[in-house]
Amino acid sequence: MSLVVESTDHEQVVFCRDRASGLQAIIAIYSTALGPALGGTRFYPYESEHEALTDVLRLSRAMAYKAACAGLDLGGGKAVIIGDPSEVKGEALLRAYGRFVESLHGRYYTACDVGTYPEDMDIIARESRYVTGRTRAHGGAGDSSVLTALGVYHAMRAAAQHTRGTASLRGMRVGVAGAGKVGRKLVKHLLSEQASVVVADISKAAAEHLRNRHPEVELEDPEKLLSRDLDIYAPCALGGVLNEQTVSALRAQIVCGGANNQLAHDSIDQVLNDRGILYLPDYTVNAGGLIQVADEIRGFNHERARARVNKIFDTSLKIMTTATDTGTTPAHAAGLLAEQRIAEVGRLRSVWLSNPASNGHAHAQV
């Protein structure tokens, strides 16, 4: 396991265990060059600690790139709690986790992710000041999937503009993999533009619930959605769905969705490109949720956050144009954009340190 950590460029990886509550978690900070690391807490029944570590390292790097491409003064971090949230999540465990977040003194801010909700953040915040994504009753912005879905929608419009010369999605067939928080809201945006929508979810109940609300939506088996004739394939569930086998079956022209870590490994980006499939990197497409919880840190203003999310259209278009002009892939172009901003803006900052004495924050070069 140490070899996994040593092969990354992460600033810090923290293993958290509390026997009394059963907490087993990992917090990974990729970079604080632009500011304190912000990223959600994923609560998931990983098969092993090694699998959880691999996931959190990839997710935290993507968060750093996401913040950089979105123009935020934030670094990238992520946390995973190992276990089935339906079985082991409770106040004692969440508060124990909150104490570990607090122990980092503001180098890492947590928020919601798969398996965690604003109500969980309220409990974590009883032990830590560095929590965002909270309920409105406790001064938060509420569900971050609202602006996440909006950002995915704008990225799709940019992809349509780039490939078809118009940002309209009318008449396009979009396959949405995942009828969860983001998928449900994305479907509403798509239907408002008279797109044709096909939805798949491993939970038949979730899929049926969505179709009951939107009878015009077509349901499909998850394993068959990839091979459907689609204009856009939108992964909006867990990551890693795109690998050599699934990409060979993929018939969509565009991949643009809200899930994190959609590629099984980085080279899949080139495989998609070689097949003539436009892949918009997930960390630029789904930045809306990050923008929302980042805005909450200083006092949430919905219109201000929404205006920044709307810019995902321009960012996506810039990335695709750069990729075309330079003969590379959008993911490569986005990565260069992120690394360039981290290097240029963060070169005099290096590592973020909290300064409790001044009730603020300071950077220290180490």
Automatic annotation (TrEMBL):
Alphabetical list of Pfam families matching this protein: ELFV_dehydrog (PF00208), ELFV_dehydrog_N (PF02812)
EC assignment: 1.4.1.-
Swiss-Prot/TrEMBL keywords: NAD, Oxidoreductase
Domain Glutamate/phenylalanine/leucine/valine/L-tryptophan dehydrogenase C-terminal: 142-350
Record-linked InterPro entries: Aminoacid_DH-like_N_sf, Glu/Leu/Phe/Val/Trp_DH, Glu/Leu/Phe/Val/Trp_DH_C, Glu/Leu/Phe/Val/Trp_DH_dimer, Glu/Leu/Phe/Val_DH_AS, Glu/Phe/Leu/Val/Trp_DH_bac/arc, NAD(P)-bd_dom_sf
A single MF term (Gene Ontology): oxidoreductase activity
Annotated PROSITE patterns: GLFV_DEHYDROGENASE
PANTHER family named in the record: LEUCINE DEHYDROGENASE (PTHR42722), VALINE DEHYDROGENASE (PTHR42722:SF1)
Similarity comment: Belongs to the Glu/Leu/Phe/Val dehydrogenases family.
Protein name in UniProt: Glu/Leu/Phe/Val dehydrogenase
